[in-house]
Design brief:
alpha+beta, 4 strands
């Protein structure tokens, strides 16, 4: 299993827009074979920090997901929404191997 940890630097005055973006992605990750652990929004922390965690059975499954979302109109629209609203300043991805029970396929 591989977990993608995404660290977002967001626009603090566009929190509602980022929350909308996050709500779009949870079912899309699941549609394309992943398990979304959720988004984590600012609270008693830096007001421009948000995180997301989602897992795939393997790195190959994650790579397939990356290819598939490039051709999924709902995924393309979600990326475009973030671009149009400018709710995300930047993001970084890290890949971690979780120490937990295996995910059911």
């Amino acid at each position: 299993m591989i977990t993608c940890y995404v660290n977002y630097e967001i626009e603090p005055d566009k929190l509602a827009e980022f929350e909308h973006y996050a709500k779009l992605w949870v079912p899309l990750v699941q549609k394309h074979g992943g398990y979304h652990h959720g988004y984590f929004m600012p609270h008693e922390s830096a007001n421009d920090l948000a995180l997301a965690l989602f897992s795939f059975v393997s790195l190959a499954d994650y790579e397939r997901y990356r290819n598939d979302i490039a051709n999924d109109p709902k995924c393309v629209a979600a990326f475009q929404y973030a671009n149009d609203t400018k709710c995300i300043r930047r993001y970084d991805r890290q890949f971690l191997k979780p120490f937990m029970a295996p995910m059911a396929r």
